[in-house]
Design brief:
By secondary structure, the chain is α/β, with parallel strands linked by helices. Helix content is about 35%, strand content about 20%.
Length: about 130
Amino acid sequence: MLYMVKIAVVEDDESIARMYKMRLEQAGYEIGVAGNGREGLELCEKMKPDLAMVDVMMPEVGGLEMIEEMQKTEWGKKPLVMLLTNLSQQEAKVDRAKQRIDGFAVKAYYTPTQLLEKVNDLLRENNLIPKR
């Protein structure tokens, strides 16, 4: 299943980032990986992803700050955004109205395959891949 959908994974835990990258590439997605919010902004500006999967807690520039900066730009308003965290939505202090957050995944609750299904569902809802 090849959809030519580009996904940016912004995650400071290298093993988690590698695992997500491998699983998403197996599904046919083009993946870029960054290790913090500053690198994530650069990656997203260069890659122009359809979906940015962003960890909330990262060194240097955190995920929410990265998303806020990204969404101030013309290109940064386009990608869907999925937060990756081990905090609940309340603990992460996510204001989904202030920042456009399209999906939320608590990393500890999802295997890479389950996360792939969540990504697929989000992409289907937004007509980026065909409905089943």
